[in-house]
Amino acid sequence: MKALIQRVSQASVSIDGQQVGAIGRGLLVLLGIERDDTAQDVTKLAHKVAGYRVFSDSDDKMNLSVQDIQGGVLVVSQFTLAADTNSGRRPSFSSAAMPDQAEPLYRSFVAALQQLGLTTATGEFGADMAVSLVNDGPVTFMLQTNNKG
User: Catalytic residue numbers?
Assistant: First the structure.
């Protein structure tokens, strides 16, 4: 399971011109789910995202998490994060989870963040979405639960 997290001052997601989710200060999480991901990956990654220290403290050091600042989290499913880009000029999606496996894990990830006390917003699983954000920093990190790559 992979999460590309971006520290944002605001972010939103729209479908067909209609906004379906938005946050102010917090994290935009682009979530990629692979075939071998499990409920354990969901729990591990949710805790890591919630506690990852990417926000500045009073000394301008990255010592605060999204939980610490009581920020929001916008979670958007993005199967392209599961692509194998090691050969050729076209990505392979053979390691991406099929929708019937990925969607329940995506929903569980959002629920796990909510159980950790985070305000969450989402896109729509499998939809063609337009994501808007103001990346604060810019600050972007790739988190993952397995030992690949």
Answer: 78-80
